[in-house]
Design goal:
The complex is a heterotrimer. By secondary structure, chain A is of the alpha/beta class. Chain A folds into two domains: 19-239, P-loop containing nucleotide triphosphate hydrolases (Rossmann fold); 249-279 and 288-365, no CATH class. Chain A is 31% helix and 23% strand. An eight-stranded mixed beta sheet of chain A has the order 7-8-9-4-10-11-13-12, sandwiched between helices. Helices cover 70% and strands 1% of the residues of chain B. Chain B has ten helices and one strand, in the order E-H-H-H-H-H-H-H-H-H-H. Chain B is elongated and about 75 Å long. Chain B starts with a strand and ends in a 6-residue tail after the last helix. Chain C is α/β, with parallel strands linked by helices. Chain C is built from eleven helices and 13 strands. In chain C, the strands form two sheets. Chain C has an eight-stranded mixed beta sheet with strand order 6-7-8-3-9-10-13-12, sandwiched between helices. In chain C, a hairpin with a 2-residue loop joins strand 12 (321-324) and strand 13 (327-329). Classes of the chains: A alpha/beta, B mainly alpha, C alpha/beta. At the A-C interface, strand 1, helix 7, helix 8, helix 9 and helix 10 of A face helix 7, helix 8, helix 10, helix 11 and strand 11 of C. Strand 1 of chain A pairs antiparallel with strand 11 of chain C.
């Protein structure tokens, strides 16, 4: 009982220019369907630096989960990684043998999922499963594994850890199962922890506790965290850098303060304005985004966001924009950028958010 | 950048209309075995229909050729112990099998579906009573019941159908009950109630159409079971009476002469086997095609 | 320019204004096997006022979904009464109850499960009208197309099937269906929870527009407090089958008078890194107790940061009473919150 301050982390944009521990280069993953390949991830590149917490945010269909699964080669049939590299410790994870990637999974790079039910075996005791995680990677022997499991459970703040270890997963609540998952993920002191929507299925109060836990662990253990989520609030609280994904591509990337304060991609900007805020002082009509996410079977030509963008110009319809640095450390792929939209198109006063409303390029118009 | 571009609408138009049935049909077509089975069964139906008005020889005409005659160009399947043309009798036998197979299943649907729907949807005491009745019926050995019924009511195609329905309706009722059970929890059923649907509408307007897939599969797979049962009864001599040929009774006659006229037992046995297989392949194919979970 | 806060637009309610819905001591128990009962809703009383949006929030196991179903008359009460415009709904049965459904409609959470996959969209939306024999034939078709237009869908989609639409579009279909009979009250049961963030905003705006145009009253059930705060005039917080606080949305968030509400508010992440860094999380000890054996006295006492044990918090259940103007809370120590 009592209160705890949120941890304060160094938000200095210029981190120690350590080398990235993970580099994703031009990753492309597709799913085969009767109607053709669905380009779930289409040319994604980014770095993960030691000890940082990186947020990958996007809605459904953005490709964020598929990206995370691709890193560890966990893509199920009918999906296939069709291109790119995932560089980790001078190795390309997409090229190493099955044996090697199995060793890396759970030992150097761990992953926790939204639904702990699917990762925890219901017929085995919880503590036993964590022991197994260590034994499988030869990080402990059967004597030391149990001790370490209990100390891990304590570290993830499960009360009565000793007896909880003997419980089966169904005897634990949702929040505790997720903590157990985190403990299992950290069992072998990995360098990277990938968390795929770990709190989405949890109650709000439990979610806040888990996020606090992750933040503290990130600070104490120096494990880099890659947080996949659709919740901008979660990102704001936990992450130092943010990647925004849309339709299988990265549309914006940068330090969290900058992204939230001055987003440069119209999608990021629109997304932030469509979220109701619990601390809002007045009732402002939400600025939603019109239309729906595009069909990844036949993505729109040019910029993938143009069918929904209030600020599109002619170039957006034909040329696919590339990621470029707009401000220091912040990159976005947009021909217009919000700086220009604010200056020339009165973006801040925009009432009509329909596509092309601000730039005058409405649906149905033909460009010669 | 010389080509013209049309600015796209934010709301993409849905692709061409695809109902769940045409989707299932498409998947069924891809199943080779089911396709072959369907072709065979269509052929069988045609043969049965044709035999209503024409057979190479009159099926009950005795002595059109030598008794126990082996297959020849005049009599493609040979003749039986009374010199009757086997091909003609086989064709008429197809009628019997199909009538029994389809007829029983239609009645089973008429009885089993409403009972199952009521029990599954309302649960409570109604379900307890129905389940009790179903279990009682399951306790009855079907062959015994069939024979008793035939003994009491006399052997005829109609009575055989009744006997089969009486002993097999429970499978359908149980299936439909299970379907209704799981469907009633689905949100669209609650939504229908909130929209003011009356009970009859709930049962037949919402539950039944959504249970149709498994019902069709069950009925399709019930046909060969009924056909086999009838053949068995006829084989025992308590089925269809002469001169009406049934594949079962033909096989019975053939077994007695198996040493010197094997063609008599082979023809109806093969016909029976092929028909049973075809219905089973079709039923399996339907099950895969209609399974909503394997929709891509 | 931003519109003024909801509390300002609302006309002050005179005491003689009859509430549209009045719930008196509603209770719902479910059998849980082995002779145990789940006390999903355990004595709840409140009212829904004409034209307002009453938000209902709580975490899992609080009973909000069950309560919503009871108000919509899809679940019978174990005990207690629900009044709709002075008519005691809980006394009605069969056909008379069915007739009342014209007034109270419901929008469900799952846009995939709440539409019959075997029916066309047109049939789904028109079904309420058919059930009550309101209209048919050409008039029915015209009304269905009008409803599609109202919710922002192409009216020529009425021959399509639900699986051909996206989640957001299906939810619009569900809304069109709920509007078909011109109801007075619509229960929104987690109506936007299953949708993407940007689509949620679309639907929230749609619901607000429809409320204005058709003078609707909403009971808006959700677990996302940010959305509830945005759309609601008043907010009701539930915990383990009981109401712990009811107040207008501004008040609830500015000055909560129940420790659970305060903890809940502190847990919601705000999409602003600077603000988020400065916030303090109110930690609740333990887990949510089982609704089969709720704690004695105040149900929240096992986790409450300000509980005074054992007296009175573990022994006496605090009544839901007025702690401020039109602000009710069930806590012995509201002043300490």
């Amino acid at each position: 009982m009592g209160c705890a301050t949120r941890s304060t982390r160094a938000r200095d944009a210029r981190k120690e220019l350590a080398n990235a521990i993970l580099s994703v280069r031009n990753l492309r993953t597709q799913f085969k369907t009767d109607a053709g390949p669905v380009k779930a991830v289409d040319g994604v590149s980014f770095d993960l630096f030691p000890g940082e917490s990186l947020g990958i945010v996007g809605e459904s269909g953005s490709g964020k989960s598929v990206t995370a699964l691709s890193i560890l080669r966990l893509i199920p049939d009918p999906g296939r990684i069709v291109g790119g590299q995932v560089l980790f410790r001078d190795q390309d994870l997409l090229q190493v043998s099955d044996e090697e990637i199995r060793e890396i999974r759970g030992r150097d790079i761990a992953m926790i999922f939204q639904d702990p039910q699917s990762s925890l075996n219901p017929v085995l005791r919880t503590g036993f499963q964590i022991d197994e995680a260590m034994l499988a990677h030869k990080q402990a022997n059967s004597r030391t594994a149990h001790e370490r499991t209990v100390s891990l459970l304590k570290k993830v703040r499960i009360p009565a850890a000793e007896s909880r270890a003997k419980d089966y997963p169904h005897q634990l609540s949702g929040g505790m199962r997720q903590r157990a998952m985190i403990a299992m993920g950290l069992a072998n002191s990995p360098q990277i922890l990938i968390a795929d929507e770990p709190t989405t299925a949890l109650d709000v109060t439990v979610q806040a506790q888990i996020l606090e836990l992750l933040a503290d662990l990130n600070r104490e253990l120096g494990t880099a965290i890659m947080m996949i989520t659709h919740n901008m609030g979660v990102v704001a609280g936990l992450c130092t850098r943010v990647i925004v994904m849309y339709a299988g591509q990265i549309v914006e990337q940068g330090p969290v303060d900058q992204i939230f304060e001055s987003p440069q991609h119209p999608y990021t900007w629109s997304l932030l304005r469509s979220i109701p805020r619990v601390d809002a002082l007045r009732h402002e009509r939400l600025r939603s985004i019109e239309g729906m996410a595009p069909d990844l079977l036949r993505p729109p030509k040019g910029c993938r966001f143009h069918p929904r963008c209030p600020f599109r110009i002619e170039k957006c319809l034909v040329d696919e924009p590339r990621l470029e640095e707009i401000h220091h450390g912040q990159i976005a792929s947009c021909w217009v950028t919000m700086d220009r939209a604010r200056a020339e198109m009165k973006a801040d006063e925009l009432r009509d958010i329909s596509p092309g409303a601000a730039s005058g390029l409405r649906p149905g118009e033909i460009i010669p | 950048m010389a080509t013209a571009a049309v600015v796209v609408d934010a709301q993409p138009i849905a692709p061409e209309q695809v109902s769940l049935w045409s989707d299932a049909w498409r998947r069924l077509r891809r199943n080779r075995l089911a396709l072959v089975a369907t072709i065979f069964l269509t052929f069988l139906v045609v043969v049965a229909l044709v035999s209503l008005v024409w057979t190479p020889y009159r099926m009950s005409e005795i002595g059109v050729t030598q008794t126990y005659a082996p297959p020849s160009s005049a009599h493609l399947l040979g003749a039986d112990e009374l010199g009757r043309d086997l091909l003609s009798r086989l064709m008429v036998g197809a009628q019997v099998s199909l009538v029994v197979g389809v007829g029983t299943q239609l009645l089973v649907l008429a009885v089993g579906v409403p009972i199952g729907l009521l029990a599954g949807y309302y649960r409570g005491w109604l379900d307890s009573v129905v389940s009790f009745i179903i279990n009682v019926f399951y306790g009855i050995p079907d062959i015994l019941v069939a024979m008793i019924m035939v003994f009491l009511l006399g052997p005829s195609l109609r009575n055989i159908i009744i006997a089969i329905v009486v002993t097999r309706w429970m499978d359908m009722a149980r299936l439909v009950r299970g379907q209704a059970f799981s469907l009633r929890e689905r949100e669209f059923i609650e939504a229908a109630r909130a929209a003011g649907a009356r009970p009859l509408k709930m049962l037949f307007g919402h539950l039944f159409p959504n249970a149709l897939g498994p019902i069709i599969v069950q009925a399709t797979l019930g046909i060969p079971a009924a056909i086999l049962f009838e053949a068995f009864l006829s084989f025992l001599g308590v089925g269809v009476q002469p001169p009406t040929p049934s594949w079962g009774s033909m096989a019975n006659e053939g077994v007695a002469a198996i040493q010197y006229a094997p063609h008599m037992v082979i023809a109806p046995s093969i016909a029976l086997s092929l028909t049973l297989m075809a219905f089973n392949f079709l039923g399996d194919g339907l099950r895969d095609a209609l399974d909503p979970r394997s929709r891509r | 320019m931003a519109q003024p806060a909801r509390a300002d637009i609302q006309q002050p309610m005179s005491d003689s204004t009859r509430p549209m819905v009045r719930v008196e001591n509603a209770v719902k128990y479910f059998p849980a096997g082995l002779g145990q009962t789940v006390k999903a809703v355990d004595g709840v009383s409140f009212e829904i006022r004409q034209g307002e949006t009453l938000g209902l929030v709580g975490e899992s196991g609080c009973g909000k979904t069950t309560l919503g179903r009871m108000v919509a008359q899809l679940l019978p009460v174990t005990s207690g009464k629900v009044f709709f415009e002075d008519l005691e709904l809980t006394r009605l049965r069969g056909e008379r109850l069915r007739q009342q459904r014209r007034q109270i409609q419901i929008i469900f959470q799952d846009p995939f499960a709440s539409l019959d996959p075997r029916m066309t969209v047109g049939d789904i939306i028109g079904e309420p009208l058919v059930n009550f024999r309101v209209m048919r034939g050409r008039k029915l078709n015209a009304r269905v197309q009008e409803l599609l237009r109202i919710v922002g869908l192409n009216p020529y989609f009425n021959n399509r099937y639900p699986h051909e639409f996206s989640g957001g579009q299906r939810q619009r279909i569900g809304i069109a269906r709920a509007l078909a009979l011109n109801p007075k009250l619509i229960v929104c049961d987690e109506a936007i929870s299953a949708l993407d963030v940007s689509i949620q905003a679309q639907i929230v705006n749609l619901l607000e527009d429809l409320q204005r145009e058709f003078k609707l009253t909403y009971l808006f059930i959700a677990h996302d407090l940010s959305v509830v705060r945005h759309i609601s005039d008043r907010v009701m917080v539930m915990y383990l089958g009981k109401i712990v606080e009811i107040a207008d949305s501004v008040q609830t968030y500015a000055e909560p008078k129940h420790p659970y509400t305060k903890a809940l508010l502190s847990a919601i992440p705000v999409p602003d890194p600077k603000i988020q860094r400065g916030r303090r999380l109110v930690e609740l000890s333990g887990e949510i107790p089982s609704p089969i054996k709720p704690p004695s006295g105040c149900r929240f006492h096992t986790r409450c940061p300000i509980a005074r044990l054992p007296t009175p918090c573990a022994e006496v259940e605090p009544p839901l009473e007025e702690k401020g103007h039109d602000h009710l809370a069930a806590c012995h120590f509201s002043q300490d919150v």
